[in-house]
Amino acid sequence: MEQGTLIGTILAWLMLLMAMAFDFTTFQLKLGNLGYFVDAPSLLIVFGGTIASTLIAHPMGDAKGQFGYVGKSWKTSTVQMVETLTLIVDVAKIARKNILAIEDALPSIENLYLRGGLRLVVDRVERENINDMMAHEMKYTMAGKDTEINVVGTMASLCPAWGMLGTLVGLVLLLQNLDDPSAIGPAMAVALITTFYGSLFANTIFSPAKTKLSQYAADEKVLMEMIKDGVLYIEGGQRPDFIESDLMNYLPPDKKKMYEALKFEGGGGEGGG
After folding, report:
1. For residues 161 and 49, what is the distance between their CA atoms, to the nearest angstrom?
2. How far out from the chain centre does Cα 148 lie?
3. Whether the Cβ atoms of residue 259 and residue 248 lie closer than 8 Å to each other
4. Helix, coil or strand: residue 194
5. pLDDT 10s digit of each residue in the chain, 273 long?
6. Could you give the 3-state DSSP secondary structure of residue 114?
7. What is the pTM of this model?
8. In this structure, are residues 264 and 109 in contact, taking their beta carbons and an 8 Å threshold?
């Protein structure tokens, strides 16, 4: 589980719950106040409406995974910049001696994009075709990520809209029953709480999820670009130390320090055969 998402979500809800239930004048905790913020019709309007509108806005194949996409923001990023760079340099050392020997290392490579690129090198595919094929795979992989981000973005934008729609429903019910005092309270609750729910879920779940998924996608694109360059360098017979030096530019400062520390501990990165 991604720590930032977990800590941020807990902190946001904790602060909100304190504002709801804690009396700052008497410094007393009034848990009964939380009951005022629970309303089933409001939840039905906001959640049901958001799901329905997302299904309308996107093809079923994309929209049906909407909550699965949100769930991905709770998972740790699978992008492994340091480990992948280390692997590329190791493969480059093997290829420097015998490029066909790369084939023996392919089964142990978990990154399918890197494995596929190196397979093309082993199969002696022309350099231009390798570049085109890997670029196409990157393009379609990122298109899939963009689809997930767009679906979650739709949920983030429509959730407050459905909250406002619920407010209008509540106001209509309120105005239709002004002669019945007992109906004014429930109608006003729907009117106000739906807006509350729409803003709450948009700002604590959907919008942060969209932002995190966007960051994950950006990191994965950088990783794929690094892999593509590494594969092309290996195909061209470049020295491992040159490959390492150039591909390190893809690493953010913290990852670069991590890589240098690991290289120092392992005594790697020495020359290129």
Report:
1. 9
2. 9
3. yes
4. helix
5. 888 889 999 999 999 888 888 878 787 888 888 888 888 888 899 999 999 999 999 999 999 899 999 999 999 888 899 999 999 999 999 988 888 888 888 998 999 999 999 999 999 999 999 999 999 999 999 999 999 999 999 999 999 999 999 888 888 877 877 777 777 777 777 778 899 999 999 999 999 999 999 999 999 999 999 999 999 999 988 999 999 999 999 999 989 888 888 877 765 444 344
6. helix
7. 0.84
8. no
What six digits make up the tokens of 271?
A: 């020359």
Helices (H), the chain: 3-21, 40-43, 49-57, 60-63, 66-72, 81-97, 102-105, 112-122, 127-176, 181-201, 207-235, 240-247, 253-266
Q: Where are the domains of the chain?
A: 1-38, 39-266
Which residues make Cβ contacts (< 8 Å) with residue 54, sequence separation at least 6?
A: 63, 66, 151, 154, 155, 158
Amino acid letter for position 63: A
